[in-house]
Write a structure and sequence with these properties.
- The protein is mainly α.
- It has a domain of about 140 residues: Cytochrome Bc1 Complex, Chain D, domain 2 (Orthogonal Bundle), CATH 1.10.760.
- Helix content is about 50%, strand content about 5%.
- The protein has 13 helices and four strands.
- The strands form two sheets. Strands 1-2 form a two-stranded antiparallel ribbon.
- Strand 3 and strand 4 form a beta hairpin.
- Helix 7 packs antiparallel against helix 8 and helix 9 packs across helix 12.
- The relative contact order is 0.13.
- The structure holds heme C (HEC) (2 copies).
- The site of one heme C has 23 residues, from helix 6 and helix 7.
Length: about 325
């Protein structure tokens, strides 16, 4: 009796290990692994791990020890971020110190003038920068888009070439060519942000291009709206006010400073830290990834049912 029972069990196992019962599992497994690799957030940011080329720090030796303090953080030097009247709102704009202009001029001459021209007026290789303001320059340099390494269809986010102080110095020099014009550098206090309001404003103004999760998506003509998962509050407000590349520019008439603060808070506090309350996040890339997984599990299960029915008949 125990012997029979054992033989029966082994028979069942053998019956289930036949190729056509194992095939669906193998298929589901293989496609699942491919899907995980293709949709894992790691692959999307693979380029950001490239090591940045060294900066030729010219005429900047006097401030270099001071500069190193800001290399790792994206915070503005402590003596900036002062006594602006609108500080209570959690978003205000600063004027960079005059002492930044001279070292900024040297950095620009060494790293930017070959394309943008000695007076930043642009030319055949690159656009005019005069009148754009320190905030626009800060956005392009702090996100590593500039200095441009090779001409692609759209400048991409890279590890920044300059530290925080050098970035502000270049920005100060470009600003000094057209004082008061363009986008100034914002200081954003996201702890004062209203996340619910930020959610509404983001859905209305940004999600069409950057998707509801902020993961980004392709646009027309080879352009794309990048992921927002790497942007700082300062960069978010600078993007809103300056409208980089194919992104529209939102003035204070469309998005007030309070609105911009709420959007920056929502992106950095909610979108950049998804809780995935409903289960695994699947990379947060939206319906494509989710549909893929649903199809995979659904088709796999259906195949199993079909084989099981076939076996019984
Ligand atoms: C190899 C050439 C090249 C170099 C070097 C370069 N740029 Fe650019 N820059 C470009 C091009 C091309 C664009 C337009 C890119 C785009 O629209 O995606 C651009 C765009 C910009 C913009 C945005 C202009 C706008 O109209 O919105 C800013 C700001 C900028 N560059 C600043 C700098 C600064 C500061 C440096 C030096 C740190 C620098 N660039 C170095 C080629 C260059
Ligand atoms: C019409 C499509 C469109 C809309 C709407 C839009 N963006 Fe963008 N956004 C873009 C594109 C395109 C870029 C890339 C620009 C470039 O690099 O040339 C971008 C870049 C950015 C970046 C830089 C990301 C990084 O890390 O490099 C931020 C931040 C950003 N957008 C925030 C926003 C916010 C906030 C809103 C809503 C207020 C918004 N965008 C609305 C298209 C859009």
């Amino acid at each position: 009796m125990p012997k029979d029972h054992q033989a029966g069990e082994a028979g069942t196992v053998r019956r289930w290990l036949r190729p056509r019962t194992v095939a669906p599992f193998a298929l589901v497994g293989a496609v699942g692994i491919i899907g995980l690799i293709a949709f894992s957030p790691g692959s999307a940011h693979a380029s950001s791990t490239a090591t940045p080329a060294p900066v030729q720090a010219t005429a900047n030796t006097a401030t270099s020890s001071q500069a190193s303090a800001y290399v790792s953080s994206n915070a503005n030097p402590p003596h900036l971020g002062g006594q602006a009247p609108s500080k209570q709102l959690g978003l205000y704009y600063i004027t960079l110190p005059r002492s930044y202009i001279a070292p900024g001029a040297a950095l620009f001459a060494a790293n930017c003038s070959t394309c943008h021209g000695p007076q930043a007026l642009g030319g055949t290789k690159a656009p005019n920068l005069q009148g754009l303001g320190a905030g626009t320059v800060d956005f392009w340099v702090s996100t590593g888009r500039m200095p441009l390494a090779n001409s692609s269809i759209q400048a991409t986010r890279k590890p920044p070439r300059f530290n925080r102080l050098q970035t502000l110095e270049v920005s100060a020099w470009v600003q000094s060519l057209t004082p008061g014009e363009g986008v100034q550098i914002p200081v954003v206090n996201t702890s004062l942000g209203n996340l619910e309001q930020g959610n509404t404003l983001f859905t209305l103004n940004c999600a069409a291009c950057h998707t509801i999760t902020g993961a980004g998506d392709a646009l027309m003509d080879g352009a794309y709206a990048p992921t927002l998962h790497l942007a700082t509050p300062t960069q978010i407000v600078e993007a809103i006010r300056s409208g980089p590349g194919n992104m529209p520019r939102f003035g204070p008439g469309n998005i007030t400073n309070t609105n911009a603060r709420d959007i920056a808070a929502y992106v950095t506090k909610v979108l950049q830290h998804p809780t995935n309350a409903g289960g695994i996040g699947l990379g947060g890339i939206g319906p494509v990834g989710e549909g893929f997984v649903a199809l995979l599990i659904g088709v796999g299960a259906l195949m199993l049912v079909c084989f099981w029915i076939g076996d019984r008949a």
